[in-house]
């Protein structure tokens, strides 16, 4: 009833497009994850800097 067309001239291009699409998805997910990681560490870093500043002020009052 249906005959399979033997023309495979565009198959390589279609596969290449799928590979590039997969790479783009992986890179996008990695960028979003890394951005969230950096934003989360910013709060911890500010807290650590504030703790060091308070410790230095505490030492200053002892001298």
Automatic annotation (TrEMBL):
It comes from the Archaea. Keywords: Membrane, Transmembrane, Transmembrane helix. The chain crosses the membrane at residues 16-34. This is Class III signal peptide. The lineage of its organism: Archaea, Methanobacteriati, Methanobacteriota, Methanomada group, Methanobacteria.
